[in-house]
Amino acid sequence: NAGVTQTPKFQVLKTGQSMTLQCAQDMNHNSMYWYRQDPGMGLRLIYYSASEGTTDKGEVPNGYNVSRLNKREFSLRLESAAPSQTSVYFCASIGTGRDTIYFGEGSWLTVV
Amino acid sequence: LAKTTQPISMDSYEGQEVNITCSHNNIATNDYITWYQQFPSQGPRFIIQGYKTKVTNEVASLFIPADRKSSTLSLPRVSLSDTAVYYCLVGSRGAAGNKLTFGGGTRVLVKP
């Protein structure tokens, strides 16, 4: 019963490098989300996907792109990483008619 | 989602009851109130959800007055392991597909 799985768990990037954070859920949920959480701060929504084939901007989308590859997978891409993107990234999902958001364990990203 | 307001932080001692109040003046008729708990270095997890009056589970109680413009999460006899950030979310049942944003949450520190 994996729930929401994120990879990688830890990553160090140099400024200007690109990378993709992967997220997969096995609960047949329609909606998926990417959040970032800076030290001592709350969660901020980056992008979300209400259903397969759709994506929408959240509160802080600049510098990111997303892909809803299929119903299970929702990836987050940093095209040119900046130190300001150093953060913990959480993927989450919620099913239609359900009220509980399920989160992954987080991906720690450091940009130097 | 309705905007919510919570205290930034609260301190308590082991064995005491902790009550966290969330204000949601613009709650809609079909909105539910859901609380999440986040431990350091982990994603948030569901604690409790309610619509009106009182809801209790093995972890907490949720008190919702008749006007539903606020709610109070009650943690009975807290222990050190209850130190966490607690988030209040207000949204319609079947919130999947919505732009789910979290506020800053309430940091609860339980002292020995």
Shape, per Cα inertia axes of chain B: globular
Oligomeric state, counting identical vs distinct chains? heterodimer
Our measurement of the CA-to-CA distance between the termini of chain A, rounded to an integer number of angstroms, reads 35 Å
Weakly predicted, low-confidence segments of chain B: none
> In this structure, how is the largest beta sheet of chain A organized?
7 strands, mixed
Shape of chain A: globular
Proportion of residues in β-strands of chain B: over 45%
What does the largest sheet of chain B look like?
A: 5 strands, mixed
Radius of gyration of chain A, Cα only, in angstroms? 13 Å
Count of helical stretches of chain A: 0
Task: Kindly estimate the percentage of residues of chain A that lie in beta strands according to DSSP.
Answer: over 45%
- H-E order of chain B: EEEEEEEEE
Report the C-alpha radius of gyration of chain B, rounded: 13 Å
Number of helices of chain B: 0
Helix content of chain B: under 10%
Would you report the number of β strands of chain B? 9
